[in-house]
Amino acid sequence: MPSLDIRTLLIVFIIGNLLVGSLMLAAFRGRLTAVLKTWIASLFVQSLGWLLLGNCGGILPLLGFVTLSLSYGMMITALTLHFGISRRYGWPWWPVGIAVLFIICVPAEPWIRQVGGNLIAALQVLLAAAITLWQRGQRNLLRVLMGGSGLLGALVLLVRAADIYQVGATSCVVDGSSPEQGLTFLCFFIFRFTFMFGFILLIEGKQREAVTRLATLDSLTEAYNRRTFIDLAERELQRSLRNGRPMSVMVLDLDNFKQINDTHGHQAGDSVLQHVKQVADECLRSADIFARYGGEEFVVLLPDTTSQGAVVLAERLRLAIAENRASCGVPVTACIGVHSLDKVSKSVTLAELLAQADKAMYQAKAAGRNCVVVAD
Questions:
Q1: d(CA 63, CA 60)
Q2: Which of 175, 310, 345, 374 has its CA 20 to 30 A from that of 107?
Q3: Distance, CA of 324 to CA of 256 (rounded, Å)
């Protein structure tokens, strides 16, 4: 197997990290988070590490080894920040401390230090791969590709450490011309390339999801907002029309909500609204569409639900709201108006359905509050 020129690969590492780091700074300008800052810094620090490691003799290769370990520690920290993983006791930095102690305490034979360097690097790459693979349900294919490349990189580093240990001697990193040395650097390049661009895609995906979340959900309760409810309800209405299926709508309004705000403060009022969303999650079905329509008013679309089923769900929701106090301790009740169609016709609009349910809700208010009324 022909050997690869190590100096050329090192130059590719250095320039590649600098370019990607600079591109990320330009692309995310004005929206740099702690995750991005840590990740970009790891790219620049790693470039410095490869530059130092490319020197033969003296203290510079040792500083390069520690600098590379530092960059991997920053990479692991960025992953924990992105995935919300605890860094209790500073565990992402433990391998960096081990690297420093290794340089200080271990004999100066180059082959021993290269064995230790490969082992510590393999540990850090393995940690990065494990963190990425462990986060289930988040962009699975991308995580598998990133984690798989990390496992490959760790395996190659372990094999390289074993090879150096068996030989018992080695030359300077950049002077090594063996196929094994070239393969090690090539596999590590694949790992870093996959991880660099994979992480960029993870960041972009998460920011896009955050924007979508802000556009579709109410920021306080995390129920659907009014616009999203109308979009989803219109689609469901058309589906019911095509299939000739029943449909029901609820309009829910909290009783004396202004008094709650005036007496207990707006923070208590916010807690009550969040409480209603939590209760709705427990009482309603996964197919039901629950949204905050405005102020203290909520709406629910119940697909494939007759009047009888809608009343059962409405009573369940009303009782749960009344029986479970909000986290602030404030009691709350609600009036619910229900309008149902056993079969949706072409002449029915969503606005008409909501108007009928809203009218029934006001009848519930007039009847003494904390009750369910079905529209005629």
A1: 5
A2: 175
A3: 17
The pLDDT tens digits for 164-190 are: 777 765 555 555 556 666 666 777 777
Question: Which CATH number goes with the domain that contains 344?
Answer: 3.30.70.270
What's the gap between Cα 247 and its chain centre?
35
SS3 string of 175-226? Answer: HCCCHHHHHHHHHHHHHHHHHHHHHHHHHHHHHHHHHHHHHHECCCCCCECH
Q: pLDDT tens digits for 249-261?
A: 999 999 989 998 8
| Assigned token pair, 176 | 């090594």
Rounded CA-CA distance 335/124 in Å is: 58
C-alpha distances (whole Å) from 104 to each of 50, 109, 346 are 20, 12, 81
Q: Sheet of 247-254: strands edge to edge?
A: 289-294, 297-303, 247-254, 334-341, 372-374
pLDDT at 1: 44
Residues of the domain holding 51: 6-216
Cα separation, 367 vs 358, whole angstroms: 14
Give the orientation angle of helix 257-264 with respect to helix 266-283, to 10 degrees. Answer: 130
Same domain flag for 340 and 293: yes
Closest-CA residue to 276 (of 227, 236, 230, 335): 335
Three-state SS at 303: strand
Sign, CA torsion 241/242/246/247: negative
Which residues are paired to 341 by β-bridges?
A: 247
Q: Which whole-number Å values give the CA distances from 373 to 90, 116, 340, 358, in the listed order?
A: 58, 75, 12, 10
- Pairwise CA distance, residues 237 & 64, whole Å: 65
User: Which residues on neighbouring strands pair with residue 300, listed in sequence order?
Assistant: 250, 290
Q: How many domains does the chain have?
A: 2
Q: What is the pLDDT of residues 147-164, one digit of tens each?
A: 888 888 888 888 888 877
